[in-house]
C-alpha cells in the first residue's frame, strides 16, 4: 500500500509540474474594444509623455501571423507637443528575397514609412530564407478617427504588396486610454 501511495503522489506532483511549466497563451477578444483595452500598456516616459501601446495585432489572425510577427499601435502624448500615432510593423516571412517596403497608405492616403531595421536572412536551404523588416508608419489624428468607425486599411508596397486591415475596436481600445483630467 505504501508503494501505491508513493506512485500516486509522484504522478500528482509530475502532473502539477507539467501544468505549471505549460505555456499560458493570453487570449484577447479582438471583437471587443473592452477586451483589447485590458491588454493596452500605459507608461509615462520623460520625452514622450504618456504612451499607450496596443497589444500585438499580428496574433489576431493566422493570415497576419504568417507574414508579420508584430503589428501594434502606439499613441504618445506630451505636454509640449501634439499626440503622435505610430503603427509598428515587423514583417517576418519566409521567401526568396527581401520585400523592401518603400511606401505605405492608410485609408487610401500616403503616410510616412520608416525602415527601422533589417535582419540578415537565415536560410535553412538554398531556396527559402527567413527575412525580417521592422517598420514604423506615422498616422495622423484623422487616420485614427477614421479607423474608429470602420477600421483602417493599411497597404505596404515594395517588391510585394501587403494589406493590413485593423478593425475599429482596436483603435477604440487605444483611444479609450486617454485620460481626461
Write up what this structure looks like.
The protein has 181 residues and is an alpha+beta fold. The chain has one domain (26-175). It is 27% helix and 41% strand. It starts with a helix and ends in a 6-residue tail after the last helix.
Strand residues, percent: 35-45%
| Widest sheet, order of strands | 1-2-3-4-7-6-5-8-9
- State the distance separating the first and last CA atoms: 68 Å
Overall number of structural domains: 1
- Tell me, rounded to a whole number, the average pLDDT: 83
What's the tally of helices? Answer: 5
- Encode the helix/strand succession as letters: HHEEHEEEEEHEEH
Shape: globular
Helix content: 25-40%
Write down how many β-strands occur, each being a DSSP E stretch of 2 or more residues. Answer: 9
Topology (elements, then pairings):
Blueprint: H1 2-21, H2 33-37, E1 41-45, E2 49-53, H3 62-67, E3 68-77, E4 83-95, E5 103-106, E6 109-123, E7 129-139, H4 141-150, E8 152-157, E9 161-166, H5 168-175
Antiparallel strand pairs: 1-2, 2-3, 3-4, 4-7, 5-6, 5-8, 6-7, 8-9
Task: Give a brief rundown of this model.
The chain has about 180 residues and is of the alpha+beta class. The protein has helices at about 1-20, 35, 60-65, 140-150, 170-175; strands spanning about 40-45, 50-55, 70-75, 85-95, 105, 110-125, 130-140, 150-155, 160-165.
Task: Write out key terms for the chains shown.
181 residues; alpha+beta; nine-stranded antiparallel sheet; 5 helices; globular
Amino acid at each position: 500500500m505504501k508503494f501505491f501511495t508513493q506512485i500516486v503522489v509522484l504522478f500528482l506532483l509530475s502532473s502539477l509540474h507539467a501544468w505549471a511549466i505549460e505555456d499560458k497563451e493570453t487570449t484577447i477578444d479582438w471583437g471587443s474594444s473592452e477586451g483589447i483595452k485590458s491588454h493596452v500598456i500605459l507608461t509615462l516616459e520623460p520625452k514622450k509623455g504618456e504612451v499607450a501601446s496596443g497589444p500585438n495585432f499580428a496574433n489576431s489572425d493566422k493570415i497576419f501571423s504568417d507574414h508579420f510577427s508584430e503589428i501594434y499601435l502606439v499613441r504618445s502624448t506630451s505636454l509640449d507637443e501634439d499626440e503622435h500615432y505610430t503603427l509598428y510593423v515587423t514583417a517576418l516571412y519566409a521567401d526568396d528575397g527581401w520585400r523592401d517596403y518603400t511606401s505605405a497608405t492608410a485609408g487610401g492616403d500616403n503616410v510616412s514609412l520608416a525602415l527601422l531595421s533589417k535582419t540578415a536572412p537565415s536560410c535553412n536551404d538554398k531556396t527559402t530564407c527567413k527575412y525580417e523588416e521592422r517598420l514604423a508608419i506615422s498616422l495622423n489624428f484623422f487616420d485614427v478617427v477614421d479607423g474608429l468607425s470602420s477600421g483602417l486599411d493599411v497597404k505596404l508596397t515594395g517588391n510585394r504588396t501587403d494589406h493590413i486591415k485593423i478593425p475599429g475596436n482596436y483603435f477604440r481600445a487605444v483611444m479609450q486610454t486617454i485620460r481626461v483630467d
